[in-house]
């Protein structure tokens, strides 16, 4: 394994710090920290307010706009402009012949690092963290000179969704630190964790837990407070509890204490970091068989219902609780370790630089 100088492009909108805004930020923190520990020189480009220990280079903020610009009736949302400005400035910087990096790893969801990748004089690899989006498809379809863009995907499921447009995708599954996410005693109220948004299915999880009579503790950020107050808050009480947005230490303790982790995606979940976290804690999964969940789970560690089948999910909760927690932990060590993830990216960097 060679040591590399890596530019790691992260989210410009959300800081990379605990409690993390989502799985992408947690993944970026883990990847950067582990690569550094293994001797690589990593520069992380991310949003303001990130963990000081990560040494993030903050991307350029949007400068004040003139009154004439603001009066333009076609002006997009300011957050969109801010992201566009941040990534445009960064990609112009990385395209300099003096940029001191061996490889650029785009870990963001933005289109500009893909569209402007050919201008960078170093190899650029983009990790596909989501199913195809219009913005990324547009950027990938642009005619380009020079070498072909390189892509990794967080699961075989996600790679398959992109394969019609990106035929050569390296699968490097996300991983969790199995030394930090440690087995817990289990036996407690089932847990649901993640961003509390419609596509993650918290409402479906609550309805399933009510039908199962198991109770449920929900943990995670609430990016859309109006939706939370309208759709989730009225369902709380009588054994259903929102416990807040927790840092990893507190979340690992919560997940490890639960009898079951309920994972209820209402979209094609590309990976599901909450699945890996629960498995590492020895907590079996009751979930919907959607996205990458059937790829990550087998009969030793999870029970899956058909997508959207709330009654089936309710039946899966007590069935999953009967699984052997030691076998669940072994599944995490075999399939979801951060060590395997980092080795996968190191192999890819070696190939790109060579």
TrEMBL record:
Keyword Transferase attributed: yes
Species of the source: Pseudonocardia broussonetiae
Keyword presence, Glycosyltransferase: yes
Glycosyl transferase family domain sequence ranges: 193-319
Ranges annotated as spanning the membrane: none
Entry-linked SUPFAM superfamilies: UDP-Glycosyltransferase/glycogen phosphorylase
Alphabetized Pfam families for the sequence: Glyco_transf_4, Glycos_transf_1
Annotated GO MF terms: glycosyltransferase activity
GO BP terms in the entry: carbohydrate derivative biosynthetic process
Glycosyltransferase subfamily 4-like N-terminal domain mapped to chain residues: 22-179
Xref: PANTHER family: SULFOQUINOVOSYL TRANSFERASE SQD2 (PTHR45947)
Keyword annotations: Glycosyltransferase, Transferase
Annotated signal sequence range: none
InterPro entries attached to this UniProt entry: Glyco_trans_1, Glyco_trans_4-like_N, Glycosyltransferase_grp1
Full protein name: Glycosyltransferase
